[in-house]
Write a structure and sequence with these properties.
This protein is α+β, with helices and mostly antiparallel strands. Helix content is about 45%, strand content about 15%.
Amino acid sequence: MPIEMTRQRFEELVADALDLIPNTFATAMDNVVVLVEDRDEHDPSLLGLYHGIALTERMSDYGGFLPDRIFIYRSAILDICETEDDVVEEVAITVVHEIAHHFGIDDEKLHELGWG
């Protein structure tokens, strides 16, 4: 049975996961925002999504763009978790996974590294 959790508590867990990002990477993140949504409208089972232009793909003319967006999908994560500890772990994995996309790391490499 999926766990229930308030949006506020879930957002706290996302903030905690962001705090786990090493300072070197956190300061290198550029023009990106992390948002909590309930579900992706096109794929309701999706846990997270990076939407933007990865740092590795930005050229010298990059500028004037709206921030990249990282979506963390609360309901989808809660659907697959049974305990709060499960949620903490899944949120951390999902946040790291999506931030890695911001740095240009693809799904194949993330799976190799254990962050799939």
